[in-house]
Write a structure and sequence with these properties.
With about 160 residues, chain A is of the alpha+beta class. Chain A has 3 helices and 9 strands, in the order ααβαββββββββ. Chain A has helices at about 1-30, 30-40, 45-50; strands spanning about 45, 55-60, 65-70, 80-90, 100-105, 115-120, 125-130, 135-145, 145-155. In chain A, β2 (about 55-60) and β3 (about 65-70) form a beta hairpin. Chain B folds into 3 domains: about 1-75 and about 85-100 and about 355-390, no CATH class; about 100-285, no CATH class; about 285-350, Alpha-Beta Plaits (2-Layer Sandwich). The radius of gyration of chain B is 21 Å and the shape is globular. Classes of the chains: A alpha+beta (about 160), B mainly alpha (about 400).
Amino acid sequence: MKVIERLKSGFGYTWAALCIVVVLATFLGLGFWARTLAKGTGIHVSPRFSGGEVRQVIDHDTYQTKLHRLVFDGLVSDRAKGFVQIDWVPRKNQSLPAIVEEEFDIDGDGSIEIRIRVDTVAGKAELLRQAPWVLGVDQLIAADSERILRVQLRNPGK
Amino acid sequence: MTAGCRSTGAALELAKSPGKAVLWSLPMLALSLFMFFGQGGIPRDPLRAIPFFFTLTLVNVLFYLMIRTGKTDRYRAIFFIAMAVLFVISFLAHFQEERGSMALTAGEAIKGRTPFCHMVIPATIIPAALSRTIIFPGSILGPYSIASMIVLWLGASLAMGRGFCSWVCFFGGLEDGFSRVRRKPWIRKIAERWTYLPYAVLVVVVVMSAVLLTPFYCEWLCPFKTVTEYFEVNSFERILQAFLFLGLFLGLVVVLPILSRRRTQCGLFCPMGAFQSFTNKLNPFEIVIARDQCRDCDKCIRECPTFSLDAKSVSLGRTRISCMKCGKCVDGCPTGAIAYHIKGTRPQWKPARARMLFLYPAYLFLTVFGGGMIQDGLYRILLLATTGSMIK
């Protein structure tokens, strides 16, 4: 009985002493542990916040247009409604034109689904042409010198 | 040693010997010097150097006093409350500097520049488990990042379990402070059933976040949005949210703690706290009550800030799972029946040693985590005093 008690006691003290090591390791290796956690688990910010991966970059004289993938991501399967995000990013020391008008093949099937006109100064966006499953402009966001547009979509596969 | 002073006996022995207290404080001095100087050395700017040395001195004086007097909560609370208040000052000044506003705009959110705080962790579990995505508009790596906060939370949880809520949480100090405003409580009795509310809130937050794929707690229930950052108020929904945040803050963090002398947000509402309770099982430290010394005066039950002691738990000689290891009951027990304990060791076996073994990781975490907040908060106050503005 005494041996078991001593073993338990020794284990308890070792565990308690290790807590100091845990604290030191947490702070001294914070960057390493964070990178390991991110890499090991593969966690990433939900595309509902980040906009999803950039699928296509279109170069213009003074800016780039970045078309993201369609986002219908749900918890376990795709959702009936989603969005596509488009970023207009000025080149270094440049600014966006006052009016940007572009058309996009958002699902990569070779046909144009949307044509958009963005007033970058007034912060207004207008859909000039849209496929039936394109529901409308969700929001146009000013982020630094960029303009970011989200267009609401209905999932054609649902 | 008499049974009545078993838990404080060793501490009293230390109190009799300042030399011994200094000796016990030296490892913390060495560790704090190592951690403080390791974070970039002495700042060249005098406005930053003054808070640096002040904080370094403060943390070591408070630790020395903890050892010398045998009182844990009294000195923990000073640091903890200072950390919370100065965190708010530092945070707001920082974002005024970066964004020119406390408001989180859609642009900031979409760029992933929202600082990730530990309160979001329970909401992210199901989506992270099922789709490896974090439902938060932050960044995985970098300053204030999701991965860094999760690592800090994991480290703190392993080292002190729900002690996190009394030694690490930079919001907890606000209501800890308000709960100490009055000497005697106006509200003396809060029905036990309310202590289960945080678990219900936890379930609601986890389920709603998984269904809506948004951090439900941050969007609707976080009282601390009032004193940190809030969503830009530009719609009816945002106005409603702002009123909810303000109401919850005033009710749970200010008014009820003042009236009841309890940490009501932590004990009756916080879903993160409820979640954190389970980490007490992963941790070697606990609070125990020596039944042979207990006079059943119920002082500990009345004074526990987080409702973690009741008649049943006291009769069993332990706290409820929600114990935050703040040490208030240990400090206040008139017979010294309550003590820190290491699981696996005999009950009441060398409680002063158990306390020291708990204090080192807990206080070190507080020092490193809170030290930076205290320094920056003080810097902002000095900046205000010398330049008239908290921002550069």
